[in-house]
């Protein structure tokens, strides 16, 4: 009798495990097989927007440097997302009592479809590589009332991160542009 209860208990436990595994199979597969495949969420120092708004104070912004680098790119059959970061340094200037600052960053991304050398502004004639996508990054300048500000230059520097999805298998050529600065990256999507 005691043996029978033990065997029934083991069978019920075993069946419960099988049923729970079946019910939560997608979550289990995702957590075991795809664990740490996709990069973490981006961290941003300045809020990013893709809307065009009031940009009345852009004229006195000067970009001194622009850099882009890949942070994480574990591209494979199950992951097509890379994490990159960009850093922008520059200076701002405005009228007395109105201190400038970077309010947001405008990000525009688009594919490049035309491959005509004469008509295409993004063609790199030295290497004859044409970027497949362009990411244009523009800091948006705003001002705030500050009676201590007397029109001097205000330096700024910020680093934002961005998740980018590959477009296809093989090399994906990307161009990042901020003001007159251009940085090209190649992300390799492998099986």
Kindly report the spatial arrangement of strands forming the biggest sheet: 1-4-5-7-8
> What best-fitting shape do the alpha-carbon axes yield?
elongated
Helix/strand-derived class? alpha/beta
Return residue spans where pLDDT drops below 50 for at least 5 consecutive residues: none
- Please report the total strand number as a whole number: 8
Radius of gyration in whole Å, from Cα?
A: 26 Å
Task: Please give the domain count.
Answer: 2
Number of helices: 2
Helix content: 10-25%
Strand content: 35-45%
Question: Would you tell me the overall average pLDDT?
Answer: 86
Quote the distance from N terminus to C terminus: 57 Å
Summarize the main sheet. Answer: 5 strands, mixed
What pattern of helices and strands is seen along the backbone? HHEEEEEEEE
Give a short summary of the structure.
The protein is α/β, with parallel strands linked by helices and 191 residues long. The chain contains two helices and eight strands; from the N terminus they run H-H-E-E-E-E-E-E-E-E.
């Amino acid at each position: 009798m005691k043996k029978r209860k033990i065997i029934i208990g083991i069978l019920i436990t075993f069946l419960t495990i099988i049923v729970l595994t079946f019910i939560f199979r997608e979550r289990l597969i995702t957590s075991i097989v795809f664990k740490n495949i996709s990069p973490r969420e981006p961290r941003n120092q300045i809020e990013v927007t893709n809307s065009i708004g009031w940009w009345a104070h852009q004229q006195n912004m000067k970009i001194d440097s622009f850099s882009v680098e890949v942070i994480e790119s574990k591209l494979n059959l199950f992951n097509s997302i890379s994490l990159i970061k960009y850093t922008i340094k520059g200076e701002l200037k405005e009228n007395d009592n109105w201190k400038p600052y970077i309010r947001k960053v405008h990000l525009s991304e688009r594919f490049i479809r035309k491959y005509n050398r004469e008509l295409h502004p993004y063609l790199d004639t030295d290497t004859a590589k044409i970027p497949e996508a362009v990411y244009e990054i523009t800091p948006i300048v705003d001002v705030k009332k500050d009676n201590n500000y007397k029109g001097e230059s205000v330096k700024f520097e910020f680093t934002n991160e961005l998740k980018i999805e590959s477009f296809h298998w093989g090399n994906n050529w990307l161009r990042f542009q901020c003001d007159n600065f251009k940085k090209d990256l190649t992300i390799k999507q492998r099986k």
